[in-house]
Amino acid sequence: MFPKRRMRRLRRTGLLRSMVRENRLNMEDLIFPIFIDETLEERRPIESMPGQYRLPLGEIRDEALELVSLGIPAAILFGIPAEKDEVGSEAYNPEGIIPQAVAEIKDEVGDDLVVITDVCLCEYTDHGHCGLIEDDYVQNDPTLELLAKEALSHAEAGADMVAPSDMMDGRVDAIRTILDDNGFTDTIIMSYAAKYASAFYGPFRDAADSTPAFGDRKSYQMDPANSDEALLEVALDIEEGADIVMVKPALSYLDVIRRVKEEFGMPTAAYNVSGEYTMVKVAARKGYIDEERIVMELLTSMKRAGADMILTYHAKDVARWLE
Ligand code: PBG
Fold first, then answer.
1. Which of 4, 38, 136, 178 has its C-alpha lying 20 to 30 A from 304's C-alpha?
2. Is the pLDDT of residue 76 over 80?
3. Which active-site residues does the annotation give?
4. CATH number 3.40.640.10 is the correct assignment for the domain at 23-322
């Protein structure tokens, strides 16, 4: 007996396939990460991330205009300061690299680009950890005050959203409180809620110059083996006032994205991190894989898992492919 239900009927032509397609990647889903280096006069390629650059402040307006013209709706900014110290002073300097960059972008493109800032100390501390160190241990509570000041300095400069990536307990509450107390009640918090201690951040640490000088981040970032714990992390951040919750990395954590989306129904972001980018880029440059098809398949899988938005270094390439 031949099958009555033939699944292949709806796969016969491109048009039929598009009619039954369940998930689509749109330009509106993408957030492009930008590295701004206070020490540079001109852009410098990031060796560990082929095709990505550290930008000088002087190029930030053009960069913003380029993103707008490509149809990319949002950027997340990472700062590399000229001076680093034990307490990450430049992270919460109101005249620091990020407040300056935010102000310039907003002056240039206004609401045509959503400006998100990464809130963390690791790019600003000389030891490269995401918080204050005492007895060789990252101290939670004293760090909160600094993160809150950092977020406030970004909001004052005009950031639409602040994105704490440090994984200290209670930071969303600390940030929401300081923002509200200063009248920034509409500044959005996108929390890196379930952020894992991942080897996939390797190329980023080179890009942002934030490799820890000793030890690792396992005492604050999550164990890759856990996913119930991710739900607890996300629940706490929502309780503390997060507007958008993020799972990071994306590729090895599609199951976590799915669980988070199903459990909370919150706006959910996935961070397609540096190591995921570099693996694809290097293999593509060698000619071993089809870059466009691989990237579209990967990003679509993140949407299928439940992500509403994706932070990705591929955003500019995707803009060209989707044209
Ligand atoms: C800062 C931060 C990191 C990333 C985003 N924010 C690095 C880390 O936690 O080590 C990683 C981004 C990427 O790998 O693309 N805490």
1. 4
2. yes
3. 195, 248
4. no
Question: Quick one: which atom of ligand 1 is closest to the CA of 130?
Answer: 16
> So what's the pLDDT on residue 188?
98
Q: From the CA of 40, how far away is ligand 1's center (Å)?
A: 21
Measure 18 CA to ligand 1 centroid, in angstroms.
Answer: 36
Pocket test for ligand 1, best of 118, 165, 279 (most atoms within 8 A of CB): 165
Q: Ligand 1 pocket check: which of 150, 210, 280 to mutate, most ligand atoms within 8 Å of Cβ?
A: 210
In angstroms, rounded to a whole number, what is the distance separating the alpha carbons of residues 148 and 219? 21
Q: Which residue has the tokens 């995921």?
A: 276
User: Which tokens hold the place of 19?
Assistant: 């009619």
pLDDT at 2: 84
d(CA 310, CA 295): 12
Atom of ligand 1 nearest to the CA of 118: 6
Q: What is the pLDDT of residues 260-306, one digit of tens each?
A: 999 999 999 999 999 999 999 999 999 999 999 999 999 999 999 99
Nearest partner of 257 among 295, 191, 303, judged by Cα: 303
If you take atom 8 of ligand 1, which residue's CA is the nearest one? 201
**Section 159-187 average pLDDT:** 98
pTM above 0.85, yes or no: yes
Find the angle CA(72)-CA(77)-CA(79) to the nearest 5 degrees. Answer: 155
CB 201 within 8 A of CB 250: no
Tokens 């996913």, residue? 227
- What's the CA angle centered on 108, arms 78 and 189, to 5 degrees? 45
What residues are in contact with ligand 1 under a 6 Å CB criterion? 118, 120, 122, 130, 165, 201, 204-205, 217, 273-274
Residue of 117, 111, 67, 75 lying closest to 316 (CA atoms): 67
Ligand 1 midpoint to CA 267 (Å): 21
Give the pairing of strands 132-134 and 137-139.
antiparallel
Kindly state the tokens that stand for 151.
């977020």
